[in-house]
Amino acid sequence: MTGLAVELPLALTELARGAGFSLAGLLPDALEAGDVAGVLRATAVSVAVLGAACAVAAVGWAGGIRILAEPSTAGKPAGVKDAYRFGLSRMLSLLPWTVGVAVLLVVGLAAFVVPGLYVLFALSLFSFPVIFEPDANPLRRSFALTHAGGRRVAARLGVLAAVVVIFESTLSLLFAGVSWILLGRTGLGTSGHGLSDSIIDAVHTTVAAPVWVLLVTGLTVTYAELSHRPSKSTPHAAHQRPEGPRS
Predict the structure, then answer these.
(1) CA–CA dist 217, 59 (Å, integer)
(2) Any bridge partners for residue 77, and if so which?
């Protein structure tokens, strides 16, 4: 659920690029042409598309955590329908924090990479306070949790990151080979701008969904171990909102 919610909007973006609509090119083209109205339109379209993609991803992320963290009231694992409902109920609260963390990450990576890696570590658990601790500041809470875990948390997140990089690098090489066999080119860099390249890229993006399964599982377990929050929910409240993941 989480993997597809994150990857499908990206896959659709790849297909749109191959069909001649490139979101990345709208604003630069309008600026180059000096078209004020075009700049405004490009900005509005970019914000709308990115906002929709982030909203879908937020629903999938929160829903995946719901499935991992809480049983239903009948004592059975939460189903996908219940998880989507939960994700939708948390979308508006999770979305602005997600955008804020993304901006901090981009700024950090632009500042000689290392600050971005630190932001990625320190704020890696921000979504869990949004979902389970609505009274807490998600950024401060994530910072406190990750630093309380110290080297153990850094090591675990480092292993997760390494596995993700290895998995994605392997997929990239695999699909470069597929592109070479089918199209006579790797599809990498300037050679990958046609519709056929975009279709292969879209399939590649979708197949990479297990990366997010790994991340949501690893981070949920990490948050459960670090938070140790006792239950404060009544049976009625537990039906309305999960009290937090159980390790």
Answers:
(1) 16
(2) 71
Measured in degrees and rounded to the nearest 5, phi and psi for residue 71 equal -80, 165
- 66 close to 242: Cβ distance less than 8 angstroms: yes
Measured distance CA(159)–CA(166) in Å, rounded? 11
Nearest-CA neighbor of 223 among 133, 162, 134?
133
The alpha-helical segments, DSSP class H, found in the chain are: 2-18, 23-33, 36-69, 80-110, 114-122, 127-132, 138-183, 195-207, 210-227, 235-240
Residues 76-134: pLDDT tens digits? 666 788 888 999 999 999 999 988 898 898 888 888 888 999 999 999 999 999 999 98
- Cα–Cα distance between 159 and 245 in angstroms, integer? 22
Q: What is the dihedral of CA 53, 55, 58, 64, to 10 degrees?
A: -80
Q: Which of 54, 55, 60, 51 is nearest to 86 (CA)?
A: 60
User: What percent of the chain stands above pLDDT 70?
Assistant: 77
DSSP 77: B
Q: Of the spans 7-11, 31-35, 229-233, which averages the highest pLDDT? A: 7-11
pTM for this predicted structure: 0.77
Sequence-distant (≥ 6) Cβ neighbours of residue 113 within 8 angstroms: none
Owner of token pair 């009544």: 234
